Amino acid sequence: MTAPLLVAIDGGNSKTDVVVVGEDGSLLAGARGGGFRPHEVGDRAAVEVIATAVTTALGRAGLSRPDAGLAHVAAYLANADLPEQEESLTKALSARGWARSVRVGNDTFALLRAGASAGWGIAVVCGAGINCLGVGPDGRVSRFPALGSMTGDWGGGFHLGELALWHAVRGEDGRGPASALTAAVAAYFGVERAVDVGLALHGRNLDGGRLLELTPVLLETAAGGDAVALSVVERMAEEVTALGTVSLRRLRLLETRVEVVLGGGVLTARHPVLMTAIEERYAALAPLARLVVTDAPPILGAALLGLDEVGAPPETYAALRAALRGGGYRR
After folding, report:
1. Which residue, 37, 54, 135, 293, has fewest beta-carbon neighbours within 10 Å?
2. Contact present, 262 and 230 (Cβ < 8 Å)
């Protein structure tokens, strides 16, 4: 049996995936835990979510000792948006004693590594939230704070769900234009009026996280030709394009053939009404960019970055890709 080499961690808003990778690139074990949300539960509790998943994966790999003796931990996390956050999380994970070295980065690095054939380019993630990373062929990096509206962000699945409800209620009570969203939102939650959804949220009879479920409702309503829903989808396409083209401009790559990797649930759903709008805008503003919607799981990017860090031989990469594309870590 191959010796364990590293632990890779993909910490998203909704779930945390962990894999233990062997020296030959094989998948030794995996585990799935809760979402990494330090902005909601605090750093200590968020790190504990990671630690629980790592401990489970290590146990499945036969490494039950606190000091697992691994070469490296590669952790790529949503909500690790600032250098000081990455530094703090690196210290917290290093203190666990799992490996000789630890690298913490934002999850956009993992998306880019998993989806870009050259290992550099632009990554735009639109899941529950939205973020963008650019890495040039010379190693220069373009990033955004990605802390929400206070740092200029717009969009993401949760925001789209909020907007779907907002327009549905305003179309219902006359403050806004009539929209098919009104009936669609009410029907989705099985209530008589769209405003009943807002009242249920206010009264905490409905979990606020379920607003994410309205993103597909919004997209389907837009596909049906509703002008209000279409305006929101077009605004989302503009934001995905703005993030990518600004990053290309910063890195002086607008005149270079470069991959723009699109990830996160909103984009990997490949809904035609949104994807067509995105493709049209990139064709106009960055015609040399090639859009890549990656089907690779984000944990693959984290594990590949881990192999990069330890200087793994080339043959381990193919083995790792084959193991993780199969989804066998999801236990």
Report:
1. 293
2. no
